[in-house]
Amino acid sequence: MVNYFWFALIGISTVVGVINGRVDLLNQAIINSAKEAVEIAIGLVGIMSLWLGIMKIAERAGLNKALSRVLSPILRPLFGGLDKNGQAMGAIIMNLSANMLGLGNAATPMGIKAMEELEKQNPNKGTASDAMCMFLVLNTECIQIIPTTMIAVRAAEGSKNPAAIFMPILVSSVLATVISVITTAFIARAYRRYEQ
Amino acid sequence: MSGLSSYVIPLVIMLIPLVGLVRGVNVYEVFVEGAKHGIKTVVNILPYLIAMLLAVNMFKASGAMDIIVNTLGRFTSVIGFPAQVLPLAILRPLSGGASLGVAVGLMREYGPDSYIGVLTSMIYGSSETTLYVLSVYFGAVGIKRMRYALVAGLVSDVIGILASCLIVRLMFGM
Question: Read out DSSP for B10-64?
Answer without folding.
Answer: HHHHHHHHHHHHHTT--HHHHHHHHHTHHHHHHHHHHHHHHHHHHHHHHHHHTTH
